[in-house]
Amino acid sequence: MATTDPRAEAFLRLLTIMDELRAQCPWDRRQTMATLRPLTIEETYELGDAILENDLDGVRKELGDLLLHMVFYAKIGAERKAFDITDVLNGICEKLIHRHPHIYDDVEVEDEEEVKANWERIKLREKANRNASGLGSEQDAVPSVLEGVPKGLPSLVKAIRIQDKARGVGFDWDNKEQVWEKVHEELGELKREVEAGSAKRSEELGDVLFSVVNYARFLGIDPDEALERTNRKFIQRFKFMEREVARDGRQLHAMTLEEMDQYWERAKSEG
Questions:
Q1: Contact call for residues 143 and 127 (beta carbons, < 8 A)
Q2: How wide is the angle at C-alpha 140 spanned by C-alphas 135 and 145, nearest 5°?
Q3: Of 227, 219, 204, 223, the residue nearest 173 (C-alpha)
Q4: How far out from the chain centre does Cα 45 lie?
């Protein structure tokens, strides 16, 4: 006798609960894709927090919350007769098969970089085919590798994705030394604009940040994760400083910077 896959049972249970909540719960009935959107973004960031903290139980829970949201969107899509969960699952399966010809076809690749390059080329062909069939807009007549970068991404994450996309078609530096030189070049341009009191300071600062993101990529470092870890480190040290200052019966706003630096050094020594 064939046994039921427990993964399928668990997923069907979630679908059933979603149907019941949508039919019986006043809050769930009232939700739309628009009202769910900010909640989904929040859940995504909570998942990111759990990953950074290496909280695997938290990752499990946050994945469940996000999966609920995906099922919720599919339920609303079905009610609007636009798509259902079956369409969603089959769609992603077909996309994965189509974009992994080295697995599901006879294409050969040498490494991860070639896999990524193939992925971008396939996406461009898909876009060109949609345009040829009349499904694309006039401004999309020439498909761009950057079209897959969401407009609403945080700027730092967007810079990472833009550079990854450009690299996928070979538009990239040859080595990290070239990128490091570019960082110094942009810093020099920023310094000149600042000293001149130019309105281009903001633009030049953006160029510096973009080049630093590029350098991080060549080092194999996720700059968004690196910055977030620094944020958390600063918060931890600053809170330590606040506690120590209060323990000594003092107040930060009444201290000199030199006095605060002494507490800061103690905070650094704590980790």
A1: yes
A2: 115
A3: 219
A4: 9
* Interatomic CA distance for residues 67 and 36, integer angstroms: 13
| Residue 75 near residue 19 (C-beta atoms within 8 A) | yes
pLDDT score of 136 more than 80: no
Is the CB of residue 47 less than 8 Å from the CB of residue 39?
Answer: no
Predicted TM-score (pTM) of the model is 0.69
CB 185 within 8 A of CB 162: no
Tokens of 181: 């030189």
The predicted structure's pLDDT at residue 1: 46
**Region 217-246 average pLDDT:** 94
Residue by residue, DSSP assigns 78-119 as HHTTS--HHHHHHHHHHHHHHT-HHHHSS---SSHHHHHHHH
**CA-based diameter of the chain, in Å?**
80
Among candidates 103, 101, 75, 105, which has minimal Cα distance to 88?
75
Listing DSSP states for the chain in one string gives -PPPPHHHHHHHHHHHHHHHHHHH-HHHHH--HHHHHHHHHHHHHHHHHHHHTT-HHHHHHHHHHHHHHHHHHHHHHHHTTS--HHHHHHHHHHHHHHT-HHHHSS---SSHHHHHHHHHHHHHHHHHHHHHTT-S-GGGSS--GGGGS-TTS-HHHHHHHHHHHHHHTT-S-SSHHHHHHHHHHHHHHHHHHHHTT-TTHHHHHHHHHHHHHHHHHHTT--HHHHHHHHHHHHHHHHHHHHHHHHHTT--GGGS-HHHHHHHHHHHHHT-
For residue 252, give both structure tokens: 């930060």
Place of tokens 């991080």: 216
Task: Return the amino acid letter for 69.
Answer: H
Range scoring the smallest mean pLDDT among 24-28, 82-86, 225-229 = 225-229
